[in-house]
């Protein structure tokens, strides 16, 4: 009787305490993990500096949790959604370092551009305050605009640069494999940008717009002095994702169904398979995800179970 009473009591407490401690998609940051999450990454990070007692923070909380879910669970975009509880003494140095004067304060941190083969020390992250509307749509639109773009865009497949890009032979400088997305869309999607960031060390990405699959049929490019045809059938539909296989000297087509073309995990797995099993530096298949970020998710879940067993 007492035990179950206590159990209900603990549950009520868990639901009324403001903050993100029980939310697997919003990373609670402290001085000891802040730089690791925010700066040692090619991801863009949004940080909410909050105080559990503040009314506007409570208003933002459910929306911010939705943002975390959208980014970390549904889309797996190259964005970290994080929060700092400025009411905790240990976090106060962080909050003053970022000159937080009111709650909630939202800041966005953008990584420096990574250049393959560049041995210079990379630049610093750029931070800015987010002053836009505190809606899911407004925040997400803003963050999409702050994703680093590593996808080269060609207006059409026949544009001058495509042939050259596919046949770039300077392997000493940049030996990454190439992925090309052929699509009807004119804008680079956040999914494609995110994949390019995860696989920055392994693949270079480009995108070319085409009206339909007929515009691709029979098209070939000269690679290493040989014409290589894009393998399409009439039954194929855009978007089409291809990579060039150096060993066979052919293009390989991502085999996913229409729905799989939005599944960044399946696409990531395919990219890993095409690269002899080499895992990406960041993202859902990376060691970093397993060793570090998943701790936020599963780690928090474990804490919950400990409470329940009381
Ligand atoms: C960005 O990605 C590259 C390639 O994976 C990696 O070497 C570099 O350390 C990353 N930058 C940061 C700040 O983590
Ligand atoms: C894939 O995602 C795009 C944009 O996010 C959306 O417009 C499209 O309907 C999705 N397609 C499928 C098959 O789910």
Automatic annotation (TrEMBL):
Residue ranges of every copy of the Thioredoxin domain listed in the record: 6-148
Signal sequence annotation: 1-18
PROSITE patterns (UniProt xref): THIOREDOXIN_1, THIOREDOXIN_2
Cited InterPro entries: Thioredoxin-like_sf, Thioredoxin_CS, Thioredoxin_domain
Matching PANTHER family: PROTEIN DISULFIDE-ISOMERASE A6
Source organism: [Candida] anglica
The protein's name in its UniProt record: Protein disulfide-isomerase Mpd1p
Record CDD domains: PDI_a_MPD1_like (cd03002)
Entry keywords, A to Z: Signal
